[in-house]
Request: fold
Amino acid sequence: MFGKLSDWFDHRTGYRKFRDAMLLEHIPGGAKWRYVWGSTLVFVFMIQLVTGVLLMTAYSPGDSTAWGSVYFIQYEMDFGWLIRGLHHFGSQTMVVLLGLHMLQVVIAGAHLPPREINWWLGLALLGVTLGLSLTGYLLPWDQKGYWATQVATNIMRDAPVIGPYLQRFLVGGPEYGNHTLTHFYTLHVGILPPTLIVLVIAHLAVFRRHGVTSPRNAQGEDMFWPAQAFRDLVVSLIIFGAMLALVIYAGHGNKIDGPEPDGMYEKAAKAGRAGLGANLDAPADPDTQGYPARPEWYFLFLFQLLKYFPGDSKFIATMVIPMGVGALLFLLPLFGYGRMRKFGHFIGVLVIVALLAGVGVLTCLAFADDEPQGFLNFPCNDVKKAEKFQEDLVKASKEAGRAVNLAHAGIPAEGARELLRKDPLLRGETLFKQNCAVCHNFSVAAPEGDFKGFHDADAKAPDLGGFGTEKWIRGLLENPKDKKYFGSTKLTGMINWRKRIEEERADWKVQDAPEVYKKKIAEQDADLDKVARFIAEQAKPKEKRDKTVLSEGVKSFSARKIHLRCQSCHTIGDDGGSQGPDLTDYGSQEWIRLMIMSPGHAKRYGDKNTMPAFRNLESPGAEVHEMLFREIDPKGVVVNMSDIDRELIIRWMTRDHRVIFGGNTISGAPKPKS
Amino acid sequence: MVNQERRSFLRFAIHSLGALFGAVLGIPAACYLIDARNRPAVQRDFRPVQGVRLDDLQKDVPTQGVIRDVRTDAWTLHPDDVVGRVWVVKTGNDDASIRVLATICPHLGCFVNNNPPGSGPGFTCPCHSAKFNIDGSKNTGPQQRGMDTLEWKRDQQDRNLLLVKFENFVQGQSEKVPRT
Reply:
């Protein structure tokens, strides 16, 4: 059946003739393992094509979408980690194989006449492959690709005459952005691969014209099919196995915290969440200080070369040497004419070995400069600089891990960059420091990562570390004049309340027997414990509050004993006094929001308030809020703070680390200048 | 003869290894391509409809309402996006005569308009002129079924507030089947 179908197809297309022409190539001297490198390159390129097309089905080249789509491929799509990982390591494998192939070619003397055109085609293929690597490095639009490619495109500027124009064209404008991505994407998928395919076809056609460069004393003969094809396939599969191993064991992907996917299939399909596959750095952000930018390892030699040519001599490293090497490689076959052939062969081997060795040494030196202990036998030049680099690297890695974990809950439409910019954990601390730590301390029981709290002996306002928790409230009830609470403020209500308790206790000590005195103190403390628990419960969402704590607490809160009488000054719900702040939902985000936006409100500190209000004074509607604010607090000081910054601070304070998402936009494009 | 056997073995080995490689790369690639099956349509609970107050509805006068909810589009999360619109019509005097109709045409998915003044009560799709009666039932045109009705109820606290269980349905067929 298959035979008949095959005959029918051959009759219509003549495919067998074409297939035979492709496969039935004579190999003088027989098939050899050392002839495999060219085929392995084609094999890996085919993998790149297949995985590349698969990635294209999910990738979105845009400033606000690129990182998100790569995140989605890596962590959410079935086997996306594997497809992307193979593509990532495939590009590096191609560079290594190119080196091996070039070495094999010059050792065999296959670059010498009459094969010089094929050598030049090979050089063009080398250039296109490196171009593919460079353009692909940017596409995830992560910090690593963003900063490394900035360096590469700036180097391009040094090219004589056309450099600045070329850079401008490639970047798609004066700065990196949407058009940089669309340009790089077009090059990466629409221009360079077809160019490479055409060059490969030409390379193979010219190769077939002259055949394999077999040793002079070669004996016997084999056909490409199946003898050489078998060898090619075996080595190709070994290389594929190595690529798979790299994807699985050397990907340095960031893990996603949380429950593992269920079942064997899900575990394998979503293995990216366990850290398998290629690394994805934090989303590209031009507003980054001192990102430790390095190119991919196979461009590190150029990066290292730049260090030896500072200032205006940079041109030597960026243009003169690379172009000189290119010209030398181009001229290499010409040394094989006539009597020069033996000499030409030797020169070829010497040049390629020297170049590969040079590249290797420069790469090692580059690694060594970044490692305080050096790399292999190469010492580190500047240990302090290397330590700082490693420190920055750890910071960048942390941010990448954080971004990936935040993205798991969804990415804002404004783009993945906003994940870290609107992350309460990372930004809230900074904003608190800038806006709140001027007056407030923020103590933490134990260091939270790098954060050890804000401590200033001259703080003018309560310490907000643990604000609203049972411990914090109990501490306040115990000693309100402590600097941690109202000791440094002008607020005296709670201090006077405690003073009355202390006076009562002093009376008890005089009047009562020691056991009775102790019992009374213990009862009083137990009441205060209940009050603290009750008020702390207010910070929780209503449906999560403990009903027993509430029912017991409200009795203590409203009791008329001296040490209680909370309700005479404070309100919870509808009942209570107004001398002190309203404690309804105390410690919750809602309570803090009113405190920040209107601390002089009757529900907060009223006319006793000394804290400025923090409000958005810039966006549309701000003037209305300002007007309403003045009605309740005519003399209050108002400091500008965006709504998002405020929410970041509130979430950071309440340890709610969900990203702040923007809602409906409330501003248009800036007004044109008249 | 030995050479022939060697060639046969090599051919067999090439085809076997090739098939193995094809499976190792091809199976994950196929799973990756059909990955969308892992993301079913969101089953939404009752959501408030903006722009409609139930007691303000007039007989045979369609009112358009908006439903907002969290919307996830692959990697992007829209925390408060318009997930759909509905036409709300009242054809009698009681709640039983209130119908909430999806604005998406059951023919091929265009947005169905309210008939312009002077054309009588009802709805018309601007794409292929599918016409519907005021209660959403099929009138004339290429559509296989009437406009899709949605489940609704009054809010417990605010009795004037309309709550709708918003769904999208498969177009181009006579049965009303929710998208899954």
